[in-house]
Amino acid sequence: MDKLIEILGSAREITDQVIGTDLLVTVKTGIINTAKAINETSNEQLRTDLKLKLHEHIEQHERIFSYMMEHGYYFPKTPQQQIHVLNETAETVLTLNKD
């Protein structure tokens, strides 16, 4: 148990980054799926409700995206830096899973 607490305690920032990345991917998937559902429905009330949900997903994406940028977890303007961060994140997650 002490080993687990040590690992989790030292990995707080990377854990926030992993959680943020997972949320961002999940919201992006929600945007895509909701847009597809809007295109496939013929029920006007459902289409209206789905459009509201789509806007909610887009707002969530904006909030998560801003959080990731502010905390140095996401670098959309510098792909090389973003690739470096993603590689470091992947290595850290793999290391945590070994123990």
From TrEMBL:
It comes from the Bacteria. Belongs to the CotF family. InterPro entries: Ferritin-like, Spore_coat_CotF-like. It is found in: Spore coat. PANTHER family: SPORE COAT PROTEIN F-LIKE PROTEIN YHCQ (PTHR39183:SF1). One of its GO terms (biological process) is sporulation resulting in formation of a cellular spore. Keywords: Sporulation. It comes from Terribacillus saccharophilus. This is Spore coat protein. Its main location: other. It holds the Pfam family Coat_F.
